[in-house]
Every structure is written in C-alpha cells, then in structure tokens.
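Troubleshooting: if your tokenizer reports a length mismatch, compare your output against this known-good record of 121 residues.
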Amino acid sequence: MNAFKTYFLDVLTKNYIRFKGRATREQYWMYILFYAIGAFILGFLSTIDNIIGILFTVFYFMYAFVMVLPTLSIGVRRLHDSNRSGWWLLIALVPAVGSLILFIFFLLPSTPGPNRFNEGN
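Known-good structure output:
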C-alpha cells in the first residue's frame, strides 16, 4: 500500500502537472503499473451487460481523461532524468518506430548526479 501512495497518489497530488524536475525509472514504471491496473479493472467492469457496465464505462473514460496530464508530466520528468528534453515525447507521433524509441528512452538508466534539469536525483 505504501508503494501505491509513493508512486501513484503522489504523482496525482503533488506532481499532477509538474513538468519540471526528474522521475526515476522506478517512479515512472510503478506509476505506469498502477495506472494500468486501474485501467484494466475499470475496463473489465465496463464489460458487464447492464446499467452498472455503462456506469463503469463512463468511469473508465473519465479515468483516462483525468490521467492524461499526470501521465504526460511523469513522462517528461522521466526524460529529464536521462538528460533529454520533454519534447522527445512528440516522437511517439512517428508511426511504428516513435513509440519504440520512446519506450527505450524510458528504460535507459538515470543520469547520475546533477544534469541540466535539476541539481541531482
């Protein structure tokens, strides 16, 4: 439960639209894990064939909409951690290879010590 608070709720509360600073690999991937679990649960519950399913479908789309900014911000901070500009997120718009390149950037280790985006990790 502590990991949920540390890696997911803190992104949603303290860092909701904070594009400055850095996010480690662990912070980024744990956020993505909890985000995916939430999306999976809501997506699964939206398959129920009655009014409850329709309600969960609405919740699913609201969840996806609300999570756009924190997901972008943690992606930018993850790129900053490897000493890359947040504008590299736009490479995902390149068909086929863009998302793969971005995925590789997210897997790369952090820049040790200070870099141009803050005073250290």
